[in-house]
Amino acid sequence: MTKAPKITPMLQQYLEIKEQYQDAILFYRMGDFYEMFFEDAAVASKILGITLTSRNSKDATNKVPMCGIPYHAASGYLAKLVKAGRRVAICEQTENPSEAKGIVRREVVRVVSPGVVVDSGILDDKDNLYVAAICCKGKGNDTLYGISFLDLSTGAFLLGEFLDTTNNGESILDQLTRMTPAELLVNENDLDLIGGLVDTATTLLPGLCVTQRPATQFHFSSCEELLIEHFKVNNLAGFGCNTLKQGVIAAGVLLDYVIETQKSDISHIEKLTPIDLELILQIDDSSRRNLELTQTIIGSQREGSLLSVLDHSCTPMGARMLKQEILFPLQNVERINARLGAVRFLYGHTAIRNTFRELLTTIYDVERLNSRMVLGNGNGRDMLALKQSLAKLPAIRELLLQCDAEHIRKIGEDLDVLADLHQLLENTIHEEAPITLREGRLIKEGYNEELDELMHIQRHGRQLILDLESQERNATGIAKLKVGFNKVFGYFIEVSRLQSANVPDTYIRKQTLVNAERFITPELKEFETKVLGAQDRRLELEYQLFVEIRSQLASESSRLLKSGALLAKTDFLVCLAEVAHLYRYKCPEVNNGDSIDIIEGRHPVIERSLPNGKFVPNDVHLDQETEEVLIITGPNMAGKSTILRQTALIVLMAQMGSFVPAKEASIGVVDRIFTRVGAMDDLRRGQSTFMVEMNETANILNNATEKSLVILDEIGRGTSTFDGLSIAWAVAEDLVQKNNKGVKTLFATHYHELTDLARTEERVRNYSIAVREWNDTIIFLHKLVKGGTNRSYGIQVAGLAGVPERVVRRAGEILKNIEQGEFNHDGTPSIAKSSNPRKPRGKKHPNQLSLFPPAQQDPLRTLLQNISVDDLSPRQALDLIYELMKHLK
């Protein structure tokens, strides 16, 4: 039987600390390394790709697994662990080893988790990193969910409440997929209730870290009290969320988690922002994916999304705001037009726009720099970056105030240039300040007298000794007096034995040699203390002064955050104007009407992948009087899906305050955009293609209003032809009749029978994508024209796709027979017999029902088949017409 190892005092301390952080990997500081032991070492070594070694315990036969990393390179290793979904507790030495009695005291100074990160090496500059918390009340269709999101690196703090009527948490899943948090906090006692929702969330958001929190934390009164105490307010009414009890619980749990993990000031979290869906254009998860707003459907890549096309921002803050505005477009016409007015001005004044971009390009991430100061993580490089950024604020403010656009001037009036903070950094921080804080070169000379003296001693130590030696020679008259040094006695004054009787009484004999005497003086000992301790004292004083400066900056967090937000807004507007200039976008007219009128609209992403001028623009008009539901037919590859998507994207861009890819556009504000596009299963949720299609369709029919825009691309394709056609017809009919007002809808389909809906519904119009036939193939014109079509050209498209010519030819023969109704008695196309004389193997099924019933022979058909057209005389032709007329009666 293997004996348990005898634990050393150091390992005993490690285990005691580890006991408090069992769900985290413990970074245990030992000198210049962070060490990990036992199971932590085994797990970390695999993730980090470092060697797993061992350390002897008191019992040398039992070795303790261990691995370690240099503390100065910890950021890169930390990033790997966090991206692997691990939490890391960072344990530092909290007393000077030289002063420690016994083992050095150590404490965990912060916990880093996937959702609670401020390290620049881990964060994505262009994206927020959220940690989220959810809670719920009730069951089934009446479940009320509370949700909150917090980005520790910027201080953004949101909360909301949503009543779920789907019994599967769709309302909360929609918010989670919109914000894409890296970590989700849940009540450990609610897993039976919301376990399915959590499982779905981790499937929809690969890499999502789920952290269970004690049920005792999920109480309204304690959470409300914690929030009130943090924000130093009497109640939460000022934030507009005092009635959102479940949301307040979620927010309180989040704040408690951040306090617990950071163990430092978090005053940069200054406000709560309610998520009010009534103020924004709502776009659900499936629609965001179908429209590829922030990432592509295939591969989930940023490149190829609307965000990648629009992102010409100059700062990380502006890039993050751009993404948020794509996900949260506006509904308020006044706010939209104010934003459009600002973009219009910047678009029309190229010199001003270019100057803005030159200035903004030199601005660092003020929001995250501020957070690092408040959390006590800011280093010398951070302060230099902040100083450079603040230096540009006066010029930016002056330029803002020059702009003849009220929205822009207001930004300039509100912008605090933070001159005092810039001056503080200018006067204090060394131009070559390093990342590390214990190596000196942090503080400039001239800021602190004691530090200046220490620097002077270090720099001119040798000369100071010579000056002291000369001073003592002159004072004593002993020409050969010299100042020396050894490791035993330190600094001393040495004179010959013959001259020792002439030394002053203030000299204290320290050592007698054969030919000399050595003395010390109080002044010399003071000098010795300064010289020998100058390096250590300088490093300690520089660190102390640096921390004081950092604290001064942290105390001005509110001002820094406000200026950072205004810089982000400026960059966002300049970005939209730059994109409009680069891609020939036009300013839309946005109003409260019910019409959408787009002239020569283009798809903002697809046109960027084509040579200049090759994209074919199209007009789209929708209203609630005459053209509310457009049934669009035409072949695959002709561009139906492109026209549908570009319409939705143009509306979205207009409502976020952007110019749009069109010659002209008049947009009546919509409240929601719904899309049902393509045939795709959702294995993440265990749903078939048809189930996904019907779920998305049900969501549209249940939630669309007369102010919504609906984009439907192929309804009913995942089931049988007759079922699909029936569903498609009923869906289109319901949309045009909904609440007697209908919903503005673009409906692309291959069910040509749907064009008949225009005969019964006066607000339905038929459109098609124009094509031109040429030598058994087709040419796509990509143009939307009035009128339906009864052909899908599927066989021709199959040929263009590379299907073998023999298959294409055979498909054409079968199609011809199906269209002409040529079948044998058991419903098989008659061509099958003549083209394939081989007898079928196995049992025949003469009674099998066919989707296409066999054609019935009739006298009219028989008569026509027996006519020899070329042999008919004019008289015979006339007689034949009379004969045919008889059969029609």
UniProtKB/TrEMBL annotation:
Origin species: Desulfocapsa sulfexigens (strain DSM 10523 / SB164P1)
One Pfam family matching this protein: MutS_II
Molecular function in Gene Ontology: ATP binding; ATP-dependent DNA damage sensor activity; damaged DNA binding; mismatched DNA binding
Organism superkingdom: Bacteria
Name of protein: DNA mismatch repair protein MutS
Gene Ontology BP term (one): mismatch repair
InterPro entries (UniProt xref): DNA_mismatch_repair_MutS (IPR005748), DNA_mismatch_repair_MutS-lik_N (IPR007695), DNA_mismatch_repair_MutS/MSH (IPR017261), DNA_mismatch_repair_MutS_C (IPR000432), DNA_mismatch_repair_MutS_clamp (IPR007861), DNA_mismatch_repair_MutS_core (IPR007696), DNA_mismatch_repair_MutS_N (IPR016151), DNA_mismatch_repair_MutS_sf (IPR036187)
Region annotation Disordered: where it falls in the sequence: 822-855
Domain DNA mismatch repair proteins mutS family: 708-724
PANTHER family: DNA MISMATCH REPAIR PROTEIN MSH1, MITOCHONDRIAL, DNA MISMATCH REPAIR PROTEIN MUTS FAMILY MEMBER
Assigned GO CC terms: cytosol
Residues annotated for ATP binding in this entry: 634-641
SMART domains (alphabetical): MUTSac (SM00534), MUTSd (SM00533)
Function: This protein is involved in the repair of mismatches in DNA. It is possible that it carries out the mismatch recognition step. This protein has a weak ATPase activity.
Alphabetical UniProt keywords: ATP-binding, DNA damage, DNA repair, DNA-binding, Nucleotide-binding
Matching CDD domains: ABC_MutS1
Family: Belongs to the DNA mismatch repair MutS family.
Biased segments, Basic residues type: 836-846
Signal sequence residues: none
